Amino acid sequence: MEIVVQILFMLISALIIIAALMVVSVKNIIHAALWLFTSFFAVGALYLLLEAEFVAVIQVLVYVGAVSILVLFAIMLTRHVTGEGQNQLYSRWWLGLILALTLFGAIIVPTVFKQKWNIPAPTVVTEPQNAEPVVAGVADIGKAFMREYLLPFEVASLVLLVALIGAIVVVFEERTERRVILTLAESWALRQKESAKVDQ
Amino acid sequence: MEALINYLLNTALNLHAPEWVILLIRHLLVATILFLVVPFQMLLLTYFERRVIARMQDRVGPNRVGWEGVLQPIADAVKMFTKEDIVPAAADKGVHLLATGVVVVPTMFMLSVLPWGPGMTPVDFETSLLFFFAISSVSAIGLVMGGWSGNNKFSLLGAMRAVAQMISYEMPAILSILALVLMTGSMSISKIVEAQGGLIANLTDLPKVPDLGLGWLLFTPVGFLAFVCFFISALAEGERTPFDIPEADSEIVAGYMTEYSGMKFGMFYLAQYVLNFALCAITATLFFGGWQGPGVSQLSAMGANNQLFSILAGALGVVYLLLKTYFFFFTMVWIRGAFPRLRIDQLMGLGWKFLLPLTLVNIFSAAIWAACIHWGPEQGLAFLSAFGPWKRWAIAFLSTLVINLLAATLLVRINSSAESSMPKLVEDQKFGAVTLP
What we know:
The complex is a heterodimer of chains A (200) and B (437).
Chain A: H1 2-25, H2 29-49, H3 53-76, H4 93-114, H5 138-146, H6 150-171, E1 179-180, H7 184-199
Helix pairs in contact in A: 1-2, 2-3
Chain B: H1 2-12, H2 19-56, H3 72-82, H4 93-111, H5 128-136, H6 139-149, H7 153-184, H8 189-194, E1 198-199, E2 201-202, H9 221-237, H10 262-287, H11 296-302, H12 307-338, H13 344-374, H14 382-386, H15 389-420, E3 426-427, E4 434-435
Antiparallel strand pairs in B: 1-2, 3-4
Helix pairs in contact in B: 1-2, 2-3, 2-10, 2-12, 3-10, 4-5, 4-6, 4-10, 6-7, 7-9, 7-13, 9-10, 9-13, 10-12, 11-12, 13-15
């Protein structure tokens, strides 16, 4: 069983990495978006491999089902969607490369090598047969939200509420300025009324 | 089932197969059965819909191929397979091909968490209800891919409409399901079904009720309102008339399917029917007891002594579920025969101004229901445990009934008065359009 899980882990993480690389390297922006959703989905699979079903399902529901659709909408509603002819690289790309390498060399490499990692060796817990596996279920997450992490939870919901009201304010049209396109029948009825007025 | 495979591999053939091989074979077998069920259901449903709608429109419908035309879907399938597959020259060919798969596969996944009979859930886990809706929203990506890749304005418009509709009706669907989760205290579809034994009142609410498998959630005020909201949203998600705006053939050819032909079109068609079947099945499962029905629980209780009885119980459960599912599919066809298509603003108005507030009120009354039935001194409601279970059930029923009735009448009045008090239209000279004064 362990080997199967490891092979699955390798496959899924390879998919995530390849998809993430494709997001930044393909020229067509719609293809980039589709690769992004592939990577989201594979992350969901990774959660499932960790037996965190709820998080996996929420990942699919929120990222694949909602965020990706919004991304696609945003891309399609803007002009020049594909970006086929554009150059992927900026003319001074070497500057960015040097900067990234220096930062990596100056910060991350010393940290990785100087830090004394006190990681305990993984202990294999032999659970008794028929024991309920200890996995954070929906009920546990709900209780944690309502007890230990009540303040962050409430703050997050307040932020969402503000965003909601902001969105309404941005798109709200005054009633007087609202435009209605008439159907054929309605405009015909309007014509009839006006011609009746003229006749009088 | 695992025991059977284990016996076959390790005892009969002496192969020493490890645990995961047995699990893998079990899941592969179940998946094969599901994959076989799906196309046959689709063939049956297309024939059923065509005959029923023909009957409603005073026509005959397909009756030439085979007895009363029962072989018509097979002839159609042969036609689909042999048709030329045309891909537009300006299309994005990879995405064009992939879109069919992205649309079909999630609908197949939806069937994998349905409890087909007592103990007959292919994959059963704690959050299967949420999984059902999460995976169904994935096919929206496929619709956009199909609509965009064809390089056709009609298909792009159709995809936009389809996705806008799916997003706005997913909210009331999931919120009305949330009320059921509050009532039953579980997000597993099989547990929600198991909680619906009994007669009118279910067994978890009133333990002494005779178990006839009729304690459906529909018989509670909360469940009834959730059912009405959910079924309307299911019609919209399955793109059935009166919500078939995305593929309105009199306006935008066939929506996102415009640039598909041959078997690729057939895949979209398949996905649509499987989605409709899954939505009908989940409606039957959540609100109408799924496999619950008179005799199933008695038979499975007898199955403890004799294996034959538990097989019988399973078969009876599947029959009950399929009967309920076909009833809902018939209702969908019935609605298609009876109602014209909604306009897009009416669609959005119904979803956001009527269904969404109604489901929010319904969640409130579901919380009251759960509190009345299950809460006690631990939650600070000691006076409730002084009443007997019948009294608690009656209090819950009456209070939620009053709240839901009030909310529904209020919302109907608000929505109808908003329509009648709309200002009169005045024509705009410049644009030929009309502004509201």
